[in-house]
Amino acid sequence: xxQNKIDAExxxxxxxxxxxxxxxxxxxxxKASMCGENEEKSDHCPCCGQHIQQREIQLCQNRLDLAFLGxxxxxxxxxxxxxxxxxxxxxxxxxxxxxxNNIENHDCIAEDNKFYQIxxxxxxxxxxxxxxxxxILITKLTHSNECKTICVKIKDIxxxxxxxxxxxxxxxxxxxSKFVQSILVLCSILVFKFAMIRIRISQxxxxxxxxxxxxxxxxxxxxLTNLPRNEYNEAELKDALLDFCYQFDNKGQYExxxxxxxxxxxxxxxxxxxKMTLEKxxxxxxxxxxxxxRYPRSLKTNQLNDIKQRIVFLDEKLxxxxxxxxxxxxxHQTQVAFVTFQTKEQLQSVLDQTKLSYWEELWIRFKxxxxxxxxxxxxxxxxxxxxxxxxxxxxxxxxxxCGFNFQYQLQKRILNFFITIxxxxxxxxxxxxxxxxxxxxxxxxxxxxxxxxTLVISLIITIINQIIYHVIKLLGQSEKHFTKTHHDVSVATxxxxxxxxxxxxxxxxxxxxxxxxxxxxxxxxxxxxxxxxQGGVISDAFFLLIVNSFFVPIFAYLDPLYYTFINYIIDNTxxxxxxxxxxxxxxxxxxxxxxxxxxxxxxxxxxxxxxxxSLLFCSSGLLIYYWIQKxxxxxxxxxxxxxxxxxxxEMMNLFELSPIILAVGQFxxxxxxxxxxxxxxxxxxxxxxxxxxxxxxxxxISKLFxxxxxxxxxxxxxxxxxxxxxxxxDRTNPLTQQNAILEFIKAKTLTDCNYQQPQVMDTxxxxxxxxxxxxxxxxxxxISLKLxxxxxxxxxxxxxxxxxxxxxxxxQDEEISQDQQEPIYTQTPEYIIVNQNISLRQNSFVNSTHNxxxxxxxxxxxxxxxxxxNPNKFEN
Length: 876
Known about the structure:
mainly alpha, 35 helices, single chain
C-alpha cells in the first residue's frame, strides 16, 4: 500500500524499549498519530494500533464530522464560532454607536493646540492666562483656572490622537453621549444573557447528536467520590445506591450493571517511575565511563552505590506489591468508584437528584456534620456524604491519583493558591517597574517611539502570560486530580482568571499608581489623567488588545518549536517510545484554547466602554483563532484522545460571568470620568442584572426552554451496546483489566466467530505498562523531550568537533610528510540525521539490533516486558 507498510510479523516484534530506536517505526507512528478519517483497508501502527492510511479532512467540513474525536472537539469549535458571532453583534449594537459618538466629540485637545505647543516649549507661565478657545478647553481638562495648576497638569491632559479619538475620554464632558452608552451597555448585558441561554441549548443539541453517533461508557456511568477507604465492597455500595434511588423515585426502575472500585496503586507507580529514573541515570554514568574511561566529575563519592542501593530498596517494595497482585490479595480501596447503570435515563435521573451547586453542597455538609440533619438530595453512605458526577471517559481517569486523599489535594490547592498569588505579585512588580520607567521618559519620547515602547510593554505582558501558563500547568499536575477532565478544568479556570488580572486589572491599577507616585499631591482627577494621558490606560489597552487578538493566534501558527524539530536528530540512547513521541505532532490542549478565548472575551469586555473597537478586535481575533486551530488540528497536531463534553460545560460557566465584567468596566469608566448620578444609577442596574447569573445561572434557565432536555430518544441499554464499546472502566483499570478483557473476549467470540482476539496482559504487566504509558505520564508534553534531544545533539556535536580537531592535530604531527591528509570522519557518528531529502545510511549497529529483536520476540504473542523490568538489570 505504501513504503511504510507493516506486516503481521513486524507488528508482533515491536519493542517499545528498543535502543537505539528505529527511525522507520517512528515515521510510521507519526503518520498514524495524525488526525484524519481512517481508510477501510489500512495497516496499523505497531505502537498505538491506529490506522496508518488516513483520508485528509477538509478545513471547511462540518464540525460534527469531527465527532469521532469526542464531543469536546465539535463543541469547542461550535462555541468559538458562536462567541465570535455574539461579540460581533455586541460591537454592532453597542460598539459602533459608541465609537461614532467618541469620534464626533472633541473633548480632548488637538495636537496643534497653540497654548499646548507654547507650554511644551516652557512658556506656559509667561503666557497664562489667555482669552482664547484653546486655553479655555485646557482649563476644562485640568479642572482649574490657576496658571500654576494648569502648567503642572498640562502634560497629562488627553490629546486627540488616533487612539484617544476613538476612546471614552474624547466625550468625557458630554453627559448625553455617556447616558446613551450606559443604556446601550444595559441592553447589551440583557442580549448577552439571552444569547448564552441560546448557546447552552445549541450545545446540548450538539452533544445529543454526538451521543447518537458514538456511544461511550460515560453515557451510562457516574463517578462517586468521598467514599470510605477500605470499608466497603461492591455489594454494600450497590444496595445502598438502589435504596437511595427508590427513595426519591419509587415508581422508577433502576438497575446497576457493575461497580468498578479504583484501587490505590500510588505507591507502585511512584516506586516504579523512580526506579526507571535511577536506572536511566546509572546507564548514562556507565556509558560515560565506558567512553571516557572515567566517571563524570559531577558524580559524588559513593553516589553510584547509593543509587544502586536505592534501586534494591525499590525492588523489594515492588516485589511485595507484585506478590499481592499475583495472589489476588491486593485490596487497597480508594475513595473513588464508578457505577454503571443499565440506561442513560436511569443515570440522568440520579444525576439530576444529586447535582448540587457549590453553596448547596456546602449547606448540606453543614447540616449533616453540625446539625446532624440529612437532606433528601444527598446520598449518605457509612456516615459520609457521597459526591456524584457524570463520569469522564475511561481513558481520562488517573488511576494512580485516586489513592490521594482529600486532605492532600486540599493542601496542594491551598499551597498552589499562594504560589499563584506570589506569581501575580511578581508580575505586578515587573509591570509596575516598566510603567514607571516609561512614565519617567514620556517627555523625551516622540510619538513613534511612544507607540513602540507601549507595544513592547504589551508584548512583555503576553510573554508573562505564557510564563504563567507553564507554571500553572505544572501546579495543576501537582494537585493530583482524579481525572484529566478535572485537571483541565482546574488549569483552564486558573489560567483565565490569573491572565485576566495580569492583562486587564493590572493595566488599570498600575497606571493609576504610577501617576500618584509621580505627583506628590494627586487630586481627585488623578485617575482621569492616568487613563487619558499619553502612555496611559487607554493607550496600553489599545496595543494590548492588538497583541492579544492578532499576535497570539499568529504565534500559535508560527510555532518555533514545531519548525525547529521538522528534521530531528535522534540520539542512540533514546528508546522507541521516546523516539515516537518526538515524531508526533504537537498535543491538542483544549484547556489552553479555552483559557485564551476566555481571556480575549473578558479583557475586550473590560475595555469596551473605554475603547469600543476592542469588540471588533476580539471578534476578528477569535475568527482567526478558530481557523488556525482547525488547521492545526487537521494538518499538524497529533490526534487527541477522546474528548468529553465536561470541559466545555465547565468553561461555559465562566463565559456566563462575562456580563459582570462589562458592567464593571462601564461603571469604572463612568466613575473615573465623573459622570452624573443618573448615569451611575443605570450602571448599578446593569451590574445588578449581570449578577443575576450568580443566583439564576443560564444553565438552569436554558433547561426550561430546552424542550428536548427530558426526552430520551436513545433506547440503548448498556447490555446491548457493551460489545460495541471500544473501552470501558474495568478494561482500563490496571488491577481489573485482565479479567475484564477476558470476559469481553468471551462474550465477543460468542457473537462474532470472525473476531480476532487481542493480546491480553496479566495484571502485573498491565500495571507496568500503565507506569510507562498511562495516567499523568501520558500527559507529559513532548516539548521537554525534544528540547533534551536538541541539547544532547549540541553537546555531542561539540564533543565530536573536539575529537576531530584532536585527531587532525595528531595526524599533522605524525604524518606531516604526506601529500594529502586522511579524511577526518573515519568512524560512524553516534547520531542519525533524519531528513526527507537525505537518504539514510545503513548502520551496522542498526542491522545487528534488528536481528537481535527478531530473536528476542519469537514468542511475541504474549506481552513480555521482562527485558526492561528485570530488577537485577545492573547486577552484572
